[in-house]
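Anyone? Bumping this.
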Amino acid sequence: MSKHKIITISRQYGSGGREIGKKLAEELNIPFYDYKLISLAAKESGYSEELFTNVESKKTTNSLLFSLSSAANARGIFGKSLDDELFAIQTEIVRKVASEGSCVIVGRCADYLLQEDFDTIDVFIYADSESKVRNIMERKKLSEKEAAELVLLTDKRRAAYYNYYTDRKWGRVENYDIAINNSSGDADLAVQIIKSMVEHKWRD
Amino acid sequence: MSKHKIITISRQYGSGGREIGKKLAEELNIPFYDYKLISLAAKESGYSEELFTNVESKKTTNSLLFSLSSAANARGIFGKSLDDELFAIQTEIVRKVASEGSCVIVGRCADYLLQEDFDTIDVFIYADSESKVRNIMERKKLSEKEAAELVLLTDKRRAAYYNYYTDRKWGRVENYDIAINNSSGDADLAVQIIKSMVEHKWRD
């Protein structure tokens, strides 16, 4: 196991998990990777950034070939659907950034992808529906009804994506070291809690 | 809402949740209630302590009458099975101790019973199977096989009990403010995390 401090953050849509990850990375003074930055890293590695557009937003249940192979073997990119190729590229990039040094990674099934070879703290951030809808109304300038639909749909897609590419169920406590209800929207409390876990795990 | 600091702890069998609750109560200098102490409180209130023996260990799926009423109305004790009467008594006692002052309550569906009238921090403590089995082998002087069976059976019963008497599913993150993986067995870290939540929630 490497001595890098790797914190993966899985999060419900509208729960504020990305903000918590970003603040945590700032406070720990380590790089922060979300979808956009993983795509950028892929581009720097020679893959087209555009390949990644909306890969996680699509349902990925139509690849018979992939479903016959295991997600753990998804690193080769031949004989698979476009979605599966993209997942394989993302897998490589997530492993690459983790092997380069300490970092915070939001989403990308990183908790699953790094479980074998990296020592990680895996966090799940969630919130009650009311709070998520309120956040998305504000962030996306949507009506309550539109925001509620988007919250439901996005989390359904995230769960489908994760459940398809891993042998786990998204949001179940057993995947994580800690699950924090961020309904209060107080990112600082969550950051403080995760920091205390980081300090405890990687104390010398 | 009362200003009492009420912390409810739900826990998988062998996860060390009871120990965390006890330490937390000591550090906060507030009373700690587990099954035994709730039974004692019931006795002091005039109920027979023996009534409570093993109530949570039995499957409680045979009361048609109860399943037709709602758990929220389970405070009357007429026309219900013995299990349901015991649950109703426990409900009263859990509410009584919470209304008396700050406390830590382990188990007893307290997270559910107090949700309407009390301001609580609801915690779920879990651990991986290996760690739970190891703890129970040691605590109960059992073989690995016996301990593994007991862990599985006890959590099945806890889930059945909770799911029967509430409209929730035991162990799902949405019931709790935080869920902590205690596989490392480091009660102090969990206590520290919960304390930081307590200080944050009830800061003046």
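Late reply, but here is one note on the structure posted above: Chain A touches chain B at residues 124, 126, 128, 171, 173-174, 176-181, 186, 189, 192-193, 196-197, 200 (CB under 8 Å).
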